[in-house]
Design a protein that fits this description.
elongated; alpha+beta
C-alpha cells in the first residue's frame, strides 16, 4: 500500500494552523497555493481536517515534483462542524424505528385470522406513511417549537419553516433535520 501511495503522490507536505473565527480555512489556502507555485510541484491530492480537541487545522498536500507544474486554485473552504458520534447515533435511532414498523405489521398479522393478515399489514404501512406526513407538516412543530400554556407547542415551525440543511440542533452540532427525521 505504501508503495502505491508513493507512486501516486511521491511526497507529502503538511500545513498546520488555526481555523479562522468564521470557521474558514482562510490564509492557509494561500500558503498551500504559494508552496506549490514556489516549488513548481504538481498537486495530486489535498486533505483538510480539523482536530477539535487540539483546535488545529491540518491541510495535507500530496504532490509530485517530477511532473509538470500547474497552479492550485484554492478558495477559502467553510468547514461545517458535525458531532460524528451523536449524528451516527441519531441515524441509528431512525433506522431502528423504521425497522420496527414491519415488525409491528407482522405482530398484528399474527393476531388476526389468516385471510386478514395482508389487510392488517397494509394498514400498518399506510399508517406509517400518513404519520410521516403529519409529523413533518405539524407534529414536529407542535412538539418542539414555542409553548402554549406549557402543554403543547405552536405552529412556528410547521412544514419545517426555517429549517434547512445547515440549521444545527440547539446545543449540539447535529443537523436539526437529523433530529426531525
Amino acid at each position: 500500500m505504501a508503495q502505491i501511495e508513493e507512486q501516486v503522490h511521491h511526497k507529502f507536505k503538511v500545513f498546520v494552523g488555526e481555523l479562522n473565527a468564521d470557521q474558514t480555512v482562510g490564509e492557509m489556502a494561500g500558503e498551500v497555493a504559494s508552496f506549490a507555485e514556489q516549488n513548481k510541484v504538481a498537486a495530486k491530492s489535498i486533505g483538510v481536517e480539523y482536530l477539535e480537541s487540539a483546535k488545529r487545522l491540518i491541510i495535507t498536500l500530496g504532490y509530485r515534483d517530477d511532473e509538470t507544474f500547474y497552479p492550485i486554485q484554492l478558495q477559502s473552504v467553510h468547514l461545517g462542524k458535525i458531532d460524528a458520534p451523536g449524528h451516527d447515533f441519531s441515524v441509528l435511532e431512525q433506522k431502528m424505528a423504521e425497522a420496527g414498523t414491519p415488525g409491528l405489521a407482522f405482530f398484528y398479522g399474527g393476531l388476526v385470522s389468516r385471510k386478514n393478515v395482508l389487510t392488517i399489514m397494509m394498514q400498518s404501512f399506510v399508517s406509517m406513511g400518513w404519520t410521516t406526513v403529519i409529523w413533518f407538516a405539524v407534529g414536529y412543530s407542535l412538539t418542539f417549537s414555542g409553548d402554549v400554556g406549557g402543554v403543547i407547542g405552536n405552529l412556528d415551525m410547521a412544514f419545517l419553516r426555517g429549517i434547512n440543511l445547515d440549521t444545527p440542533y440547539p446545543g449540539s452540532d447535529i443537523p436539526l433535520l437529523v433530529h426531525v427525521a
